[in-house]
Here is the input.
Amino acid sequence: MEKGIIDNHALTDYPIHDLLRKRWSARAFSTRKVEKIKLFSILEAARWTPSSRNEQPWRYIVFTSDNPSRLFEAQSVLLESNSFAKQAPILICAITRKMYTDSQESNRLYFHDLGAANENMFLESFNQGLIMHEMGGFNIKLAKEVFKIPDDYEVGIMIAIGYQGTNETLPEKFKVKNTKPRERKPLSQIAFLEDLGRGIQEMIKEE
Ligand SMILES: Cc1cc2nc3c(=O)[nH]c(=O)nc-3n(C[C@H](O)[C@H](O)[C@H](O)COP(=O)(O)O)c2cc1C
Here is the structure.
């Protein structure tokens, strides 16, 4: 591991796939350009996400360092708390269509399916040797204007993708966040056996 590059892998209680274990929301982006073929693989991963009625409601508006003035515009929607992402050579605005295309009925699962597609992108980013960071902290109203989002779409998140940089390149406030141990609720608080009163861990006690 290169000096200053952090790998904040998950400390899991049970074995999981290596890609899932290694994915994390890093903040130190290198300004190094990302190869187009890698970007396409990441978007392809989103494309193959399952969705309700196969609607595929996700849409991605991509900004890269190939067009610095447009990338700068995309950066302008980010809140100060997410300014670390201004280093990234790729910013993406992830939006999702609220209605089914065939019936024009509202799609209850539009955000669910966008989230699933985003996670596919996340995993493929790491598979490509890149990092990714999802951000809900941005000016939605401004994003709607800057990215010209039609009313039948909901703005989801901003996504930063790039090569990982060293922790030293981050401003102090982000350095601390970037090195903080990652935490999760125990399995017994998120999965239940038959009713919400029985944490799944009871299955182990039963053995
Ligand atoms: C929908 C969504 C919105 C998020 N928004 C932000 C954000 O605005 N700023 C930020 O620094 N991290 C943001 N995150 C990252 C989360 O804080 C992070 O995923 C969580 O702390 C778990 O850490 P991990 O991804 O390293 O496992 C967001 C993540 C998701 C999924």
